[in-house]
């Protein structure tokens, strides 16, 4: 590859030997045109290079004419990889740094291609910018994860608590409906899940809290209400009806079998008036268990 000095005294190139021969044949370069082998510090007259001697003899320059300037260089094309690197790096702000991993790789590849393009590609600044932005966001991934994971855990726990509350409210309603259809008689503690099946539409999910695994039923019936009627409960808004427990289907008992399934040692409790609350486990003993 060679560089040449045009008649405007500007440097052009690099060009292949075939391109140089073509311009000699067209009279655009002469034996006096200055040329430099790429990588060499020395500029020479074109006639001093044996490689082009045959072409110079075959196409002698016209007398009295000055060599035409070398063709203007083609405007380099901006590297698409460099642009993609910067864009993906910036998008890492929205993707928690995931796209920045790709941006980092593309930026490095873009720089290599630009250096090997011999001036046909530009955009090294964009590639370097993409590498810097992507690198910073990739380094921040552990920090982002440390901030995000607790928030996700809190959101998951809150969603589970809401679902559990809804389950307890449906179970409360089913028990009250059962009592209304059976002369105010509450379900038998040893088969309360079976007794209210038709009042929950047969939905097994109502008996299961997402915060609990391994049991068919996540709730227990207040055993102190055995053989009682709904009308026997003098303070329904304060009296426990159902509560979270890990025992399985048709479990009944008191606060001793309550399960702490939610973040912060909380228990979901349903009351005889139909409402539900999430209460601290240490408050269970102070709740009203007797009718």
Biggest sheet, strands in spatial order?
9-7-8-10-11
Cα distance spanning the termini = 100 Å
The average pLDDT is 85
Count of separate DSSP helical elements:
7
Into which percent range does the helicity of residues fall?
A: 25-40%
Q: What is the total domain count?
A: 3
Main beta-sheet annotation: 5 strands, mixed
**Tally of DSSP β-strands:** 11
Shape call: rod-shaped
Description of the molecule:
This protein is α+β, with helices and mostly antiparallel strands. The protein has three domains: about 1-60, 2-Layer Sandwich (Dna Ligase, domain 1); about 75-140; about 155-285. The chain is about 35% helix and about 15% strand. It has helices at about 15-25, 55-60, 80-90, 100-115, 125-140, 140-180, 190-195, and strands at about 1-5, 10-15, 35, 45, 75-80, 120, 220, 240-245, 250-255, 265-270, 275-280. The strands form three sheets. It has a five-stranded mixed β-sheet, covered by helices on one side. A four-stranded antiparallel β-sheet has the order 2-1-3-4. The longest helix has about 40 residues, at about 140-180. It starts with a strand and ends in an 11-residue tail after the last strand.
